[in-house]
Design a protein that fits this description.
659 residues; alpha+beta; Beta-Lactamase; 5 domains; 17 helices; 19 strands
Length: 659
């Protein structure tokens, strides 16, 4: 400040003291009058607002009772489960509607439950209710307990307490009216902050102040005239000193712009030269500080860019301040194009709004968040990132923004999945093999017992007649065939597993093979089950079809599929046949048996697998037939599939190449 300015200030102070004293005594009288009017206004407004929030709460309770009565009438013919579903939907609908009620800047309706849950908090419907006693907010917990104890008598009550404001994170004293809605155990309340009361009073104070200001204009006019006279006097005095002062100011202005050293030779007067020496010392220290700061910034930037993890940082508005090279490669745009923009500006879509919500949560609660997400790149490959986001502050501890680090955990996640899958497969394989051995033991013992038992009767029992001998011989023959088939299946599976199965290709007539099978099974079905019919459907257009493949293995698969159909079909029909397309011949077996569930269809062709362990007792078998069939068909260049509906039937289809 110039010396002449100091003189001017003292002259103004001495001149305006009488004016200020006059204004002080006059304004004091007006202030007393105003305080009296404010007291009346405060009392009236307090009564008005308490009635207002009470009416708001009573209106909500009336609406709830009406909704319950209306729905009770509608729900008379519904089951308890349906009533519960409708009541849950009604609660959600009412909570969403009540959450939209607001008045003034801070007014809203809140709903807590008697069992420690907040359903509407801060004017927002909570999809997942907040556990109040676990919220970690002492002022909320204490006010909740006070309300909970106060309204147990069923009447509405007013409460005063300190609580977070709706429009900011600061606390304010609040007047609240709360009443219990007993049918649902809801504590319904609404309140108003004393700050709003003071705001209204302040508006009235402003009106009176405007009146006072108008009265002061005349005093100010007199003051202005005095100041103008003093400024004129100061101007006359300053003309003698301004030349040296302007020179010094010009030099210092240049030094402040580029941190250059002040040239003392251009400064006159000893006092100013001493000041210039001090300034040169300060500028030198400042230059050293900025050089060190720049070097640290370069080092830190190099370190951040060298890290393979994605690193980014934002301001308090979630606008990007910068990022490392890995994050630039991930986003696909330059860093300079990201700075100053939010995720909504860059990414768009629902995902960007989720990022903004998590940023706001971190800034509001001053906590860190960690999450995993699967990102799909434009070229189709997917990467799983684990992201940690936290806030950073300035030297005063004030939150300035968010910093985030994302780490690629795709390989780790895949390794865990692979280990779990391998573990499940190993456990399932062990279980299936155990079940297979137990079942196979039963299947082997059954025909062996029959062979031994009936053989003993034939050898040692002299009293049996010829008809019984023929029956025993037939039973021994059937048991021997069953045992031989079982051993053949086990041998075939062992050969397949060892890669020793041989395919002997030869030409054969498809029509002839299928007709032979039809004749064979038609006689068997006619003898064994009069409720079952077997049907053969040839491809009329390709009756002369000749395939070159392993005839024995092809018949083995067809016999296996038809035998399965006979095993699981007690009545109805079994249809088999073939159809020819451009490249393949499709063979099928369709039955009207018990069918197969969707879960069993997934493992029907797995080795040692049966659709249900109980079937092995009722229908026989060890679970090798379909697995052998699938592998044989694959070896012969085809494929096999099944379609089934439980209780309706199944259709097995396999293909063989035409050439």
């Amino acid at each position: 400040m110039r010396f002449t300015d100091v003189i001017l200030i003292w002259m103004i102070i001495i001149s305006i003291v009488p004016i200020l004293l006059l204004g002080f005594f006059w304004s004091r009288e007006r202030t007393k009058q105003f305080d009296s009017e404010v007291a009346k206004l405060r009392a009236n407004y307090y009564t008005e607002q308490t009635n207002f929030i009470k009416i708001k709460v009573d209106q909500v309770l009336d609406q709830l009772e009406s909704e319950i009565e209306f729905n009770a009438e509608i729900n008379k013919n519904l089951s308890p489960v349906q009533i519960k579903i409708k009541e849950d939907y009604l609660k959600k609908y009412i909570l969403q509607r009540i959450s939209k009620i607001s008045f003034g800047r801070e007014g809203y309706v809140f709903i807590n439950t008697m069992d420690n849950q907040s359903l509407i908090y801060d004017g927002k419907y909570q999809e997942k209710p907040i556990q109040i006693l676990k919220s970690g907010r002492p002022e909320w917990i204490s006010s909740y307990v006070k309300m909970q104890n106060g309204i147990k008598d069923g009447n509405g009550h007013f409460f005063e307490y300190k609580f977070k404001k709706h429009t900011s994170d600061s606390l304010g004293y609040k007047l609240t009216y709360v009443k219990l809605f007993k049918p649902w155990g809801w504590m319904i309340g609404s309140g108003i902050y004393y700050d709003e009361l003071n705001s209204t009073i302040e508006s009235e104070r402003v009106k009176l102040r405007d009146n006072i200001i108008n009265d002061l204009y005349r005093i100010f006019f007199i003051f202005l005239i005095v100041v103008l006279i003093l400024i004129f006097i100061n101007h006359r005095l300053s003309r003698y000193l301004n030349q040296n002062i302007k020179t010094f100011k010009r030099v210092f202005s240049k030094a402040s712009d580029d941190f250059s050293i002040v040239d003392i030779n251009n400064i006159k007067h000893q006092e100013f030269q001493e000041l210039a020496l001090s300034a040169n010392k300060m500028i030198g220290e400042r230059n050293k500080f900025f050089d060190a700061l720049l070097q640290e910034e370069i080092l830190l930037r190099s370190l951040i860019d060298a890290v393979p993890n994605l690193i980014f940082y934002k301001d308090k508005e979630s606008r990007y301040l910068g990022c490392n090279k890995a994050f630039v490669a991930y986003m696909g745009i330059d860093e300079k194009d990201m700075i100053g923009k939010t995720d909504v500006d860059i990414l768009g879509g629902e995902r960007s709004y989720l990022y903004l919500e998590s940023d706001k949560k971190i800034l509001d609660s001053k906590t860190s968040l960690m999450n995993e997400e699967l990102i799909k790149y434009p070229d189709g490959h997917e990467v799983r990132y684990e992201t940690i986001k936290t806030f950073f502050t300035d030297v005063n501890g004030d939150v300035q923004g968010i910093i985030g680090i994302s780490h690629d955990v795709t390989l780790h996640h895949q390794m865990i999945q692979d280990l779990n899958i391998a573990k499940e497969k190993a456990e399932e394989s062990a279980r299936l093999k155990t079940a297979f051995l137990a079942n196979m033991s039963h299947e082997i013992r059954t025909p062996l017992n029959a062979i031994i038992g009936f053989s003993n009767l034939l050898v040692y029992d002299d009293e049996i007649d010829q008809e019984e001998k023929e029956t025993y011989n037939r039973m021994i023959s059937q048991s021997g065939d069953s045992l031989a088939n079982l051993i053949n299946d086990i041998v075939d599976m062992a050969k397949i597993e060892a890669g020793q199965i041989d395919i002997e290709k030869e030409e054969f007539s498809v029509k002839q093979v299928m007709e032979d099978l039809f004749v064979l099974y038609k006689e068997q079905v006619a003898v064994k089950n009069e409720n079952l019919q077997i049907i053969y459907e040839p491809d009329i257009e390709h009756e002369e079809l000749v395939l070159t493949n392993d005839l024995f293995r092809m018949k083995q698969v067809m016999v296996n599929l038809i035998n399965n159909a006979l095993k699981f079909t007690e009545k109805g029909e079994i249809t088999f046949g073939y159809k020819v397309n451009d490249t393949n011949c499709s063979f099928y077996v369709r039955d009207t048996g018990i069918g197969i569930t969707k879960e069993s269809l997934k493992v029907i062709f797995d080795v040692f697998t049966q659709i249900d362990g109980t079937y092995s007792r009722k229908y026989g078998g060890v679970g090798l037939g379909l697995s052998i069939s699938k592998r044989l068909i694959n070896i012969m260049g085809g494929d096999i599939k099944v379609e089934s509906i439980p209780g309706v039937g199944s259709t097995f289809t396999f293909t063989l190449p035409l050439k």
